[in-house]
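Recap from last week: sequence in, structure out.
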Amino acid sequence: MSLTHSAALTAGETLLAVRGLHAGYGGSEVLHGIDLEVGAGEVVALLGRNGMGKTTLVRTICGLHPARSGEVVFRGERVEAGAPHRIARRGVGLVPEGRQIFANLTVEEHLSAFERPRAAAPARPGAGDDGPTRSTAADRIGRVFELFPRLHERRRNMGNQLSGGEQQMLAIGRALVTEPRLLILDEATEGLAPLVRHEIWRCLAALRAAGQAILVIDKYVQRLIQLADRHVILEKGRVAWSGSSAELDADPSIWQRHLGV
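Predicted structure tokens:
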């Protein structure tokens, strides 16, 4: 069973474009003209020390925080003023920091509640998974259990009966059942035990191999270098550096200057 559906966009075509984005809280500006792109099938890592604007950027992309100026263009449509549920239906799946698992829902109930797929585009030749052959709810949930067998074992357990790692797996699965074109993970492995982190990295590598576009925040730079195509480092709400995994791997001074590692 395939982990993801084939994307209608051609690999390399721009999926998300953030242009000159400003955002803040009250009288304080947090993002100062951010530019960022993610292509179809591409994995981009968003790096930076704590408090540099990473989560604010993700929340603004997802419509959870208002932009003051600039553009967020997703699949050719400006969405920076859109409602979060409409942006999600267009194909953005968020795994939020803190997981936000419901204590009184089982694993199966979480997945069933969120399994509605993204909105279909008008039928057109070569539309891929936007065409008539869309997956069923059982297919979507089955793919999550294939990716995370532990969730299948725990499928009747309540959210508050899961370990932190299992909750993170469920948060990822909850986003995946919407069939996102872009999966966004805020602190993908924060606070998890090494073995669980390894399982999350395995999952993300499998999704990448299946063509899933991903924007990921995490502090484990060496693992991100293995996973991501490109990296964007934020410093005080601005893009301080961007480049490929090869470039970041070849210059440890970039880590020391901007990441403190």
